[in-house]
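Hi F.,

I've been meaning to write this up properly since the lab meeting, where we talked about keeping a consistent format for the predictions we share between groups. The idea is simple: the sequence comes first, exactly as it goes in, then the structure tokens exactly as they come out, then a line or two of notes. No screenshots and no reformatting. I'm using this chain as the first example so we have something concrete to point to.
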Amino acid sequence: MKKTLKIVGIVLGILILLIIAGIIVLTLTFDPNQYKGQITRIVKEQTGRELTIGGKISLSIFPWIGAEIRSVSLSNAPGFGSQPFAQVGELGVKVKLLPLLHKQVVVDQIIIDGLKLNLAKDRAGRTNWAGLGGKGASAAPAKPEAKSTSPLPGLLVSGVTVSNSEVVWDDQASGARYTVRNLDFKTGEISPGRMTDMQLAFDFQSGNPPLRTRVTLKARLAVDPQKQTLDAPSVSLEAAGVTIKLTNLKGRKIIDAPTFSGNLDIPAFDARPLMQTFGVKYKTADKSALSKVSFSGPFSASTNAVESKNFRLGLDDTTMHGSFSLRDFAHPAYRFDLNADSIDVDRYLPPSQPATKNESRQPAAQAQPTPVVLPLAALRSLNVTGSVSVQKLKATGLRSTDVSARLVAKDGVISLNPMQAKLYGGSYSGSADVDARGRTPVFKMDEKLADVQIGPLLKDMQKFDYFSGTGNLAFNLSARGLNANEITSSLNGNGSFAVHNGKIQGVDLLKIINQTRAIAAQVQGKPVRAQTASGDETVFDRITGTVRVVNGVAANNDLTLQSPALGATGKGSANLVAQNMNYVLRVVINQDNPDNRTTVPVIISGPFSALQYSVDWGEILKEQAQKAVKKEIQKQLNEGLRKLLQ
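Output, unedited:
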């Protein structure tokens, strides 16, 4: 038995030696370069492309089955220029022979150097890689794939190295062009389910928007194709001055139906140079705005949805917490809930442009800016539901606290309801709706202010700086239009106001009347313009009235003013489009003495920013003449009655 085994062993040894000797002889005698012409002919027949092999093809068979090839290029598709579709300076791969007998694949370093790939799409939507699958490949009926059983569970790759490579994407249909240069890619040992390190770096350039930046990616991850899983404890991406970090990244069903989850962290970065990198020109009122932006929070994503709960968003001095989700990328549906501690919106608005001397002297000669037209298509496609709350808010000069609003937008109808806030010692409540389903959007606003300090409110709004008191205001308005001018000029609705215990600063009605009395005789009944001083004021107990707005003109016909020294009624209008006023305030002096009561018409007119006051003494003289006639008639009546009684 021992002798038999010995003979068998000797025979097997001889066979192995013969096989090894045959492999060595084959390696030494077989020259694959003799088949270059046959290889290029087959490629031409199958793809219609010219394959050029400029370098030498090297083969190895034992102990590695491998090939190295240099200076290879594949021509472009007709109509896409003369530059090659693909070029490779060097390509090398080796597979160990003996492990294949045990269904194990052990691959040495895969090396690709000098890859240049030109991908393109023409204006008709045809790509330059169409047809590379071979003639008839597109006509072959698709067969259902059997469930993968991982026929090569023992795959092991020592690493992949790609260097000095370039990829260009030119989309002539959209005009987009992207270029990746100086691409370097390197991995550690790769095996299904085992952790490996990966590094990727390249220069990225685009034409629209213009962008040039170095991109680096570092990751430690494990991919298991059989289980369709991805696990990445850490991923770091740096580009354009922004660092994006992913931790505890997990992917499931990464082949059939990919889903991913993990934690996203974007450390604070300056968004201003980032916008410049993308060619975005945007100036803010505060030059330091957008200098510190950050994000951190968990996320989950699939091929058709993304979601983040309990995230933290930092914007300069503001911290926001909340949740966000986006579903159905083809028809996006947004859901959000944001809570901010404090934010000054005015910091992020464009800086105001002060008027020049020439502009103030010749306002009519200045070209008016083109109104911004509302994007109807975008408004109609909105599908948004969310809420916002802010502890402290400053916007358009107004300061408020405990602000909250809920937004619902769907099928062309956008609603902000309810909206609430505390401001200037009082409260605000209201709602706003936009109906964009028709050709022209329709706006509706229902707003109320209760117990609000009117003076600080108007001052912060930069509207009036001379009115104070505690006010209650209510407005119910509607409008329609595609831009701000159309909306303002179509404003219609009603309102009411009641202001208590206040002052009209910069104007003293009694002083105006007394000043103009002295020169009333000289002007012979013509209106006398009053001179006002900054220290002047008119104190009042109560001002009430209602307002009717028609096509951007607000009319008030029932104003009443009550004060210790005088009373008044008012009637007139304010043009919200032209920003000017034409109003008559009829001031009653000595209102407690009917026999000596005088009504003085005070005319208020001019632009909102520079109102002028004048007294119409013509009306006063008419009233005095009427009183004199009435007094004379009464005297004659009394004299006649006295004679009758005698």
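Notes:
The chain has a mean pLDDT of 81.
DSSP finds ten helices and 33 strands in the chain.

If this format works for you, I'll send the rest the same way.

G.
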